[in-house]
From TrEMBL:
Annotated ranges, domain Peptidase S49: 107-254
This protein's name: Clp protease
Top-level taxon: Bacteria
Annotated GO MF terms: serine-type peptidase activity
Hydrolase is among the record's keywords: yes
SUPFAM superfamilies assigned: ClpP/crotonase
One of the GO BP terms on file: proteolysis
Keywords for the protein's UniProt record, in alphabetical order: Hydrolase, Membrane, Protease, Serine protease, Transmembrane, Transmembrane helix
Length: 318
């Protein structure tokens, strides 16, 4: 019995030592990550302190993004930014999100040359944003276009009938809260929504015609929701050149930007919390300590934003 008791004591001591060293190792790794982050953050800040070309990535579903608007404003006001490249990879999003970003880019383009580099996709509101720049390049196999606006809503009246559910509504007027997924859409509601959509569609078409130096008739031929490859988009004058970042830099050079200066990405660092509370660091430290995703970005990656797009939508769904 004495030997077994001693064995248990030794095991407990060994377990405590192992737990201590594990905790110490985790702390050291975390401190190294923070130190590396500071080094990287300072390096990025240093890169912004010399003349450079600012690169901004616009990815995923587009909504009204106040942080992005502030970042574009900061780029516009920075004397060290000599030119801008918007790297776009998005299926679109809300029409208002595209509009607000478009307007901010036009303010930026009034002071600095701005080019758009299309990655896999720049459709609907994303193409609207690209058209705000003065030069658009896309890869041969990029997807461009889907000029248009829509409103989608489900009709669950058949399901309600099967479940024996009936919705009662007392409204000030027939078109209040219409269209509704809980009642069949009336002709009057359908016409109201169509007028809403066509008004924004008319504005979108006019915007593309103005920015791409095309007649309204030319744009209308393309603005039936169709998508195009980069090569097709070039033939249809929706982009200016086929290529990537090198071609965008070459165009900036024609506007007086030194092509030898570095291209520096301006990232969303959530500057209000500084480096220690930025998304990247919080996510990295969270993984070190076993948290699946402390920032919740995985929900965005899985398409959460597409499920909750309010208002008019200008988006292409793969």
């Amino acid at each position: 019995m004495a030997l077994r008791a001693d064995d248990l004591i030794d095991r407990r001591r060994l377990r405590r030592k192992l737990t201590f060293w594990r905790a110490l190792a985790t702390l050291i790794v975390a401190l190294c990550l923070v130190a590396f982050g500071f080094w990287f953050y300072e390096g990025e800040s240093g890169a912004k302190s010399v003349d450079h070309i600012a690169k901004v990535k616009i990815e995923g579903t587009i909504t009204q993004d106040d942080e992005l608007l502030r970042r574009l404003e900061a780029i516009r006001k920075s004397p060290r930014v000599k030119g801008v490249i918007l790297a776009i990879n998005s299926p679109g999003g809300t029409t208002t999100g595209g509009e607000t970003t478009f307007e901010e880019i036009r303010k930026l383009a009034a002071e600095k040359p701005v080019a758009a580099e299309v990655g896999t996709l720049a459709a609907s509101a994303a193409y609207m944003i690209a058209s705000a720049t003065d030069h658009i390049v896309a890869h041969k196999s990029s997807i461009v276009g889907s000029i248009g606006v829509l409103i989608e809503y489900p009709d669950i009246t058949g399901l309600m009938d099967k479940l024996g559910i009936k919705l009662e509504a007392i409204k000030s007027s027939p078109l209040k809260a219409e269209p509704s997924p809980f009642t069949p859409t009336s002709d009057a509601a359908r016409e109201m929504v169509r007028k809403l959509i066509m008004d924004s569609y008319d504005w979108f078409v006019s915007l593309v015609a103005e920015r791409r130096h095309m007649s309204r008739e030319q744009v209308l031929e393309l603005a039936d929701g169709s998508i195009f490859t980069g090569r097709q988009a070039l033939a249809n004058k929706l982009i200016d050149a086929v290529g990537g970042e090198d071609e965008a830099v070459a165009w900036l050079a024609t506007k007086g930007v030194d092509p030898k200066i570095k291209v520096v990405e301006w990232k969303d660092t959530e500057s209000g919390g500084g480096f220690l509370f930025s998304k990247a660091v919080v996510k990295t430290l969270g993984r070190v300590f076993g948290l699946s995703d402390p920032t919740g970005d995985i929900l965005r990656e899985l398409g959460r934003d597409r499920l909750f797009l309010d208002g008019l939508v200008s988006v292409w769904h793969p």
